[in-house]
């Protein structure tokens, strides 16, 4: 495995000494910079596994470079070196250096410290990669891929947690169910790709209408559900009607040809439930009542809000 190391020092002699020590190892690829400013230029265009820098340099010294790297490239290890005593080494370690080596260099000690830092660099990269993959897996397991809203499984977990909290602390909690009116007709007349576009556009409107604490989800098909913590019946009704009115005016365009766009209009029916309510003993009761209210909204002619 090859490692790329950036050596930063204004002294030609020091760079030559470091090169002679490290070039013995064929796995090391070395790049040189004479000060922190030149090093930053190389860091913008190259991926290094380790930076080895002198502390005392003109233009931008090693501590300034270290501060920049700790802030902007926290996973990149930095080894500093100095010939000016412990105080500079302590400063470097306090500011985030992986290690500090004192001049004159002992070749064996220098190589061991470099190897240790590179081992840390490799482990950190694997850790970062694993964390990124886990993040992607969590997103896949909790998000609806079409709308980028939370999925039904995640919604059930959140609703259970929020209901338990509302019951324990006597908080208010509302549940809003939404159905896009005549969605099957859109699929039948314009095709499923246009139907998917409508779902994505509505999901975007839904996210923009919700507060940060609200949890908008795709319940299934053309049905959506919003969990509204700390929200009573009246607050949920106001939010639902605001969403309904915004949906009526939301522009959705269908491409007829290169020159022609057709604007589609959609509406939604909404049902909601709110806790506390003597009929609600579990989070599933909230969904059941909201679904019943949604059914009433459809029977009332659609494009309206009904409260359980």
TrEMBL record:
GO terms for molecular function: diguanylate cyclase activity. It catalyses: 2 GTP = 3',3'-c-di-GMP + 2 diphosphate. InterPro entries: CheY-like_superfamily, Diguanylate_Cyclase, GGDEF_dom, Nucleotide_cyclase, Rev_trsase/Diguanyl_cyclase, Sig_transdc_resp-reg_receiver. The modification 4-aspartylphosphate is found at residue 54. Coiled coil: none annotated. Gene3D superfamilies: 3.30.70.270, 3.40.50.2300. Its EC number is 2.7.7.65. Keywords: Phosphoprotein. GO terms for biological process: phosphorelay signal transduction system. Residues 4-118 form the Response regulatory domain. Residues 171-308 form the GGDEF domain. CDD domains: GGDEF, REC. PANTHER family: DIGUANYLATE CYCLASE DGCM-RELATED, REGULATORY COMPONENTS OF SENSORY TRANSDUCTION SYSTEM. This is diguanylate cyclase. It comes from candidate division LCP-89 bacterium B3_LCP.
């Amino acid at each position: 495995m090859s490692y790329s190391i950036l050596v930063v020092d204004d002294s030609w002699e020091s760079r030559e000494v470091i090169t002679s020590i490290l070039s013995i190892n064929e796995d090391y690829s070395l790049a040189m910079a004479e000060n922190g400013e030149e090093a930053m230029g190389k860091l913008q265009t190259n991926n290094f596994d380790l930076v080895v820098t002198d502390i005392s340099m003109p233009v931008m010294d090693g501590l300034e470079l270290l501060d920049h790297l700790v802030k902007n490239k926290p996973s990149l290890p930095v080894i500093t070196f100095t010939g000016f005593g412990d105080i500079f080494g302590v400063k470097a370690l306090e500011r985030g250096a992986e290690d500090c080596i004192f001049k004159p260099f002992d070749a064996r000690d220098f190589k061991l410290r470099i190897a240790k830092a590179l081992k840390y660099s490799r482990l950190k990269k694997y850790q970062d990669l694993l964390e990124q993959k886990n993040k992607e897996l969590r997103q896949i397991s909790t998000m609806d891929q079409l709308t980028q809203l939370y999925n039904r499984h995640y919604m059930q977990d959140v609703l259970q947690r929020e209901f338990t909290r509302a019951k324990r602390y006597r908080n208010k909690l509302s549940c809003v169910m939404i159905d896009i009116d005549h969605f099957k007709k859109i699929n039948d007349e314009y095709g499923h790709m246009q139907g998917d576009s409508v779902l994505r556009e509505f999901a975007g409107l839904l996210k923009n209408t919700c507060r940060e604490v609200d949890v908008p989800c795709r319940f299934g098909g053309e049905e959506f559900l919003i969990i509204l913590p700390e929200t009573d019946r009246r607050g949920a009704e106001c939010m639902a009607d605001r969403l309904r009115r915004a949906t009526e005016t939301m522009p959705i365009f269908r491409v007829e040809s290169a020159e022609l766009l057709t604007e589609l209009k959609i509406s939604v029916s909404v049902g909601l439930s709110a806790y506390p309510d003597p009929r609600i003993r579990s989070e599933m009761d909230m969904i059941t009542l909201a679904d019943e209210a949604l059914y009433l909204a459809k029977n009332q002619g659609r494009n309206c809000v009904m409260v359980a």
